[in-house]
Amino acid sequence: MSPLAENSGPVVVAAVIGLGSMGLGMARSMKRAGLDVVGYDITPAAVDRFIADGGRGAATPAAAARDADIVVSVVVNGAQTEAVLFGPEGVAATMKPGAVFISSATMDPAVARDLAQRAEALGLHYLDAPISGGAAKAASGALTIMASGSKQAFDTARPGLDAMAGKVYELGDAAGTGAAFKMINQLLAGVHIAAACEAITFAARQGLDLDKVYEVITASAGNSWMFENRVPHVLAGDYTPLSSIEIFVKDLGIVQDMARSERYPVPLAAAALQMYLAASGAGMGRDDDSSLARLYAQLSGAQLPGAANEPEKQ
Q1: Where is the 3-hydroxyisobutyrate dehydrogenase-like NAD-binding domain (predicted)?
Q2: CATH at residue 220
């Protein structure tokens, strides 16, 4: 894709609110594509990292959004997204009419619909656009984005979407649909991580060569994307958080709430949620979600590589 700087039109200004492992990669991807990117994070060091890359920094979300055509919010949940939009230093107060707010957080579809209505009442566009793919794909501009919103929201967001994503699914013309698709993804992801951790620790309890287990399973029908991606963390004894236990406490909790409201049974997601809750209660909430394997090890006496049976210091 050619950088926007090669085009005859004006440079698109984008603000990224939240420069964690995902947001920083997304900001870098847009800058690499030729957008003029301003970053904000509650942690000043995160802003400094982006400035060191040649980006611009801002002291508040409102300041970051002042001249932006596109504002990308890369925070954890609906409550944080609401604060980014409408809090004391929120972007809604400074975004120009016709600018688009891209919400990347995982949240209940009803919350996404409410935020969109409030933003649109102020003359702003709102794109419900949760993301998937992890930090590596964020850094390379190859995320999957599950988006829904008006045609105007998509049109305004297009330069940012093209820069950040390998695949953009356009799922409808109203906010909430993207959020609902993401919750289906999170149901599967949470269950698959729990199953992968249960299986690899069961293998350890039987005294199997875990590297060989990984080799065999990834070439067999029992493999999953999450087994292939998360089990190497267990084999390395490295639980540095790339995606934390608390993320799935939140997301599977949303699944439970949605299912309960519709009287729909989700027993596998419910069982997985209990394991994430137990891991969080055992002090692993901020650690990588593969820490479920450590919880299984604690419960069973299985031995995993490294200091795997002890939670990281919080």
Answers
A1: 176-296
A2: 1.10.1040.10
